[in-house]
Amino acid sequence: SSGINAEYGGPRMIVDESGELVLLDNNGNIIRGETKDLLALLKKNILEEEIRLAEEQRQRELEEEKQRRQEAARLKALEPPRTPTPLPPRDFTLPFQFSRVFGKM
Prior knowledge:
This protein is mainly alpha-helical. The model has no long low-confidence stretch (mean pLDDT 84).
């Protein structure tokens, strides 16, 4: 294997040291063949790479979300427990003569 794939940056068509058009695939392998076959393979490799990158991004987002939840839970655990504010005492006795307002029941 030559030094071509040392700076690998995704699937692409390159010209090798001998001036031949070759495919550098998803794994950094050099593939030789008919140009149309290489282009079809390149397209397939690009789609696979896009799927892989999208999956990596999704995994990163899931991991970030998990870390945010853990951090929120950790901060919540550090808060002093909330004691409910007591309501002022209420006088539930009726301020009027019930029978005078509603008549005899």
